[in-house]
Amino acid sequence: MKPALHKLALAVVLAAAAAASAQAQDSVDADRLLEQADAVRSTDPIRFGAVLDEVNERASELSGPQLQHLRLLQAYRLGYGGQYQGAIELARDVFDSASAGAIKFRAGLLLANSAATTRDFSLALKSLEETIALPDDGIPSELVEQAQLVAGVIYNQLGQHEKTLQFASSVQQMEAASERSRCFASQLRHEALANLQPERSGERIPQIREAIAACDGIGEAVASNLMRINLARSMAAQGDRTGAIAMLQAHADEVGRTRYPRLVAEFHSTLADYLLIESRLDAASMHAHAALEASHNNAHSLPRVTAYRVLYEIALVRNDILQALDNYRRHAEADKAYLDDVKIRELAVQQIRNEVQQKDQAIALLSKQNEVLKLEQQVAKASAQNTRLLLLLFAVVLAGIGYWAYKIKRVQMAFRRQAQTDGLTGISNRRHFRDEADALLKRCSASGKDAALVLLDLDNFKHVNDRHGHAAGDWVLMQVAEACTAACRDGDLCGRLGGEEFGILSCGGDIDAARRIAERCRTLLAAIDTATIGHAHRVTASFGCTTASRSGNAFESMFTDADTAMYRAKGSGRDRIVVHGDVATPASPVAPFEPSHG
C-alpha cells in the first residue's frame, strides 16, 4: 500500500506544479498582450482594438491589477472613438477603485482630458488636481510629462493659450522627456502659437515641418496630422493654397486610419474650405460631408460650422436654392452652438478665477476672525481700554466684510455684462439682443407704436480674413459695430447676431425710418478707411428691413422677414437695401471687399 500512496502523492504534486506553471504562463501572456495594446493605442488603432479584444476574451483569467489595466485601455478606446461620456465614467471608476500607482495616475489623466473634451472644465481641473496630488512612488517620469501635456490640453480648450505654451515648453525642455511626449508637446506648442501669433505663421513653417517629421518617425499620426492642418493654414496664409491642398490630400487615408474624430473632422473641413475657394466643388462637397460625419457627436465644433458653410456656398453656385437654404439653416445652428460653446469656455475661465479669488477672500476673513478670537480672550482679562480696542477691531472686520461684499458684487456685475455683450465689439450679443428685443417690442405694442428691424450682413467678409488675417477681420468687425451704433437713435437696440451679421431694432420707427437707418449705416460703412489694414476695397453690406406693422409684433416673425429680405439683397448683387414686401433695387455703387467665388 505504501508504494501506491507515494505514487499518488507524487502525481498530485506534479499536477499542482503543472497548474501553477500554466497559471503563471497565462499571467505572463496577459501582461505581454496588455503591454502590446498600450504600445500601439495611439499609433495603430486597428491593432490596438484587435489586441484589446483578445485580452477581453480572457478577462476571467486576469488578476486584479491586470483587470484594472484592461479597463483603463477600454476607456482609452472609448475616448479615441468619440464616446467621451463612456470614457469618463470608466476612467472615473478605475481611478476610484485602483490603488495608488501608475494605473490610477493614468486613469486620472484620462478622466481630466476626456472631461475637457466634453467642456466639463470643472471636472477636468478637479481630476487633474487630484491626480497630481497622488503619491509619486512608482510613477514613471513619462507620466509626469503626460500630466503637463494634459494640463496644456485643458488650458488650450479654455482658450488660455499662454498657459498651454508654458506647459508644452516645459516638457520640451526636459532632458529625459520621451520622444512621444516631445511629439505631443510640439503639437500643443504650435497650436498655441497659431492662436497667439497668427501674423507670424509663415515664420513657423520650417519648425512645423521638422516637428511633423519627428512625430512621423515614431508613428504618432494623430499629432503629426494635427500639425499638418496647422501647416496647411500657414501655407495658405502665405499664398500657397494649392500646395496646402496637395499636402492634405496626400495624407487623407492616414488621417482616416487614426479614427480620431477631432482630427478627422478638422482635417476634412479645412480641406473642404480650400477646395471650395479653388472652385473644386465636388471634392469640396465630399470632404465637407466627411467632416460632418466625423463630428456628429460634437454639435458645437468649428468643423461643423465650416462644413455647412461650404455646402451652403456650393448649393448657391449650383443654383440649388432649397438646398442652399437648408444648409444655411444648419450652418446658422452650428455657428450658434459653436459661439455658445465659446461663451461657456469664457465663463469657465471667469468662474475659475472667481473661485480662486473667493478662496483668497475666505482665507483673509478666517485670518481676521482668528485675530478677533485672540483679542476676545485678552478682553476677558483686560481693562476698559482693551474693550475699546476690541470694538475698534470689530469695526475694521465689518468694514473688511463690507468691502469684500462690494467687490464680489462688482465681480458678479462684470460677469453679467460679459454674458450680455459680444467679446470683440462690445455691443449686445445675439442672446441679449433677442431678450431686449422681445421686451422692447412689447412696450412698443402696448403704446401703439410701430417698430423697425434692420439686419445687415457684410459682403464677402471671408476674403478679408483669408487675405489679411483674422486680426484684420476683427478690426473691421469693430469698425462696423461703431458704425451701426452711430446709425442708431436714442433708445434703439444694436447687436452682433453672428460672425459678420448685425441687427438694429428701433421703437417708433416706420418703414421709412428703417430705410433711413439702413442708408445711414451703409454710408458709415463706406466711410471706413480700410487702408489701415492694407485693404484696397471699401466695406459694404447687404441690408434687410421690416416693421412690426408688416411682419407682426413677434420678434421671430420680424427676424425671419428681415433675414429673407437681407438674403434677397445678397442674391440681387449685394451692397443694397431690401425691404420686406418690396422689390430689391440696386444701391449706389460701392466697391466690395473682393469678387465673390460664387
Automatic annotation (TrEMBL):
<feature type="signal peptide">
    <location>
        <begin position="1"/>
        <end position="24"/>
    </location>
</feature>
<dbReference type="InterPro" id="IPR043128">
    <property type="entry name" value="Rev_trsase/Diguanyl_cyclase"/>
</dbReference>
<feature type="domain" description="GGDEF">
    <location>
        <begin position="449"/>
        <end position="582"/>
    </location>
</feature>
<dbReference type="InterPro" id="IPR050469">
    <property type="entry name" value="Diguanylate_Cyclase"/>
</dbReference>
<keyword id="KW-0175">Coiled coil</keyword>
<dbReference type="InterPro" id="IPR000160">
    <property type="entry name" value="GGDEF_dom"/>
</dbReference>
<keyword id="KW-0732">Signal</keyword>
<feature type="transmembrane region" description="Helical">
    <location>
        <begin position="389"/>
        <end position="406"/>
    </location>
</feature>
<protein>
    <recommendedName>
        <fullName>diguanylate cyclase</fullName>
        <ecNumber>2.7.7.65</ecNumber>
    </recommendedName>
</protein>
<dbReference type="InterPro" id="IPR029787">
    <property type="entry name" value="Nucleotide_cyclase"/>
</dbReference>
<keyword id="KW-1133">Transmembrane helix</keyword>
<dbReference type="Pfam" id="PF00990">
    <property type="entry name" value="GGDEF"/>
</dbReference>
<keyword id="KW-0812">Transmembrane</keyword>
<keyword id="KW-0472">Membrane</keyword>
<feature type="coiled-coil region">
    <location>
        <begin position="349"/>
        <end position="385"/>
    </location>
</feature>
